[in-house]
Amino acid sequence: MENTIMIATAGEGAALPDGLVEKYFQGRATLSSDILDGTAMERDFQEGYSRGAFSVLVALEKSAPLGFCAVREERGVRQVAHVYLDEAAREGDAGRDLLLKVKDDFLGAGDLMCLTGIIIPYLCGIDGHDLISWGYQAYERCTMERDLMEVPEERDLPSGMEIVPLKEGYFWRCAEALYRAGKDSIDNVIRPGVFATPWACFSFLNHIKRNMFGAFDCAMSFVAREKEKVAGAIFGTLRPHGDGFMPALFVDPRYQGKGVGSALTVALLRKFKEMGLPRISLCVTASNMNAIGLYRRLGFEVTARFFEIQLMKAREPQ
Length: 318
Prior knowledge:
alpha+beta, 33% helix, elongated
């Protein structure tokens, strides 16, 4: 049977499928295990699309939209920001055709570029095996959660170190510590744009500050310091459904193995409990067994899984 699926660009060969876009963001807003705040994401998408920051490919069958994929470029990395397939289309070829078209259009021959993104199976029916068979590298990520009925006692730090609430003046030093912690990690393989430079890390922390991961306040975040040196930091946000979220925890390699990560996590757990929050969640790469072991020891359990994709094409030799 002939494949009748057509892939077109919104604004050129197709209209933006507003109905599917609305269903997609409604799905993300109700997905408690999601990384980002659905309302903030939808606002970011609509504003970005109106100024041309997003390219949107639409899968069509006899002019009826089946799904869409939104791609944007940020800090030199092209990102598959949103993928959605209507439930009736998840058993067919629309997902494959969309993501193969993305590869063809956005990973150009001879260009040095990286294509990354997040795939949530719940919203498109695409899993890691599909992605690998289509030529993508797919890395499994986990959402971990725990309730806050009982929280651990404060953890001791080495002499001369202390944990203090985050202040505006610490953001750049936190970005430098995040860069040192992330540049040799598995997360830098998956999301090279985030850890490429201290400035890229600073931009990521500003995304947190701008409420992209839930409502942010410095009072919900902490820094471990030795005098004025930042040894590590943990960022907390408040999700729309009333739970706490931990978008970032990092420890400068020079201070790892000294209990800093554990002490920071406990500080955030105790703060969220003091605020009366019922639960906290976080996301972690499934192969990062050290981090998962830390979180399990502190009472977290895996509650959901999703995939981050990455595809790089090196510059061809001259």
